[in-house]
Fold this protein.
Amino acid sequence: MGKLLALGIVQNVVIMLGLMALIAPGLYVLSLWMVAMPAIIVERSTVGGALDRSAALTRERRWLVLGILVLVAIPAILVVEIVGTLTGISIVTWLLEAALSTVLISLTVVLYALLRGEKEGTTPAQIAAALG
């Protein structure tokens, strides 16, 4: 749990700094480290190892990774914000944000599995077996 917290802090700080520094650097780092969270869990690596692993898995696929994120995240964020604003009910906003988090985390897991399959021939069953 500590490694996941440390990874989340490092990712969020670096991505936010990148976004504040002209947006493009933040988007680059976001696509670079998109699958670090599943990597740290499945491969039981260190924070640095997970970031390196994510960079290796997303190499030559960063535009695709970023495109998928944009296609999924932007509409989902817009729905959460619009519905939250229209209802004005904080519990509705909270529930929508929880659903959004679930979708985005699931997206990283799916991308991790697809990238491992593409680069290494690993199947989802093999990834699941590593967790057991």
